[in-house]
Amino acid sequence: MQVKDEEAVISRITTRMAQIYQRSESFMFVSMQVIPSLRFGNSTVPAYSMKVFALPYLIAPITNLRSTILIQAALHDILHIQPSRGIILYIPVAEENMATNNTTMMGEVARLQSDTHGCGRESGIFKSLSRSLSRRKKSSSGASAPLSVATTSSWAARSDVHEAKPAAISESEGTNTSADEGSVRPRQSRTLRLFGSRRLTEPSEHSNAGSGIGC
């Protein structure tokens, strides 16, 4: 297979790879080598072999399946080669084994983490403010919250208890009054008995006196 404009082809492949991996084009490194003797089986139909070097977190079973579909669709549009005539190899590279701009990927990650920790003082202040505001909102919402079923039922039970107490007091008062009435009734009967005995004794005295005078 002969490629007329390699620069245009590489540019298009770079753009599509950046879209597939959702990265900037400046993070893409694409090289292309045309091998006339490259064959896929005994057929003379053009074929390709592609190697993808990336960090380990970018290479995974589901990610590779998605990337394979998108990459082979892009190469079919650019090179006009069927997916069945291409091979893609995914090769993970550890952070300490990939370097650029005078540092490895591990060193770059450490630098970014230190920058985020340095800028995290103001963010910590904002976090504390947000926490205090959320606590105030929770306290206000709890104070003005509508009554729940549990609280109303518990309050109803308490009210029943308070209402039951006067009933008990009234019953005790009734017993006291009945006892008082019972204690008063014997006094009335005693007075009646005394009055009756006096009424009965008075005629006998008069009769005795009268009989004495008659004699």
Automatic annotation (TrEMBL):
It comes from the Eukaryota. It is found in: Secreted. Its EC number is 5.3.2.1, 5.3.3.12. Residues 161-191 are annotated as: Disordered. One of its GO terms (molecular function) is phenylpyruvate tautomerase activity. One of its GO terms (cellular component) is extracellular region. It catalyses: 3-phenylpyruvate = enol-phenylpyruvate; L-dopachrome = 5,6-dihydroxyindole-2-carboxylate. Keywords: Cytokine, Isomerase, Secreted. It is an enzyme of class 5 (isomerase). InterPro entries: Macrophage_inhib_fac, Tautomerase/MIF_sf. Belongs to the MIF family. This is L-dopachrome isomerase. It comes from Emericella nidulans.
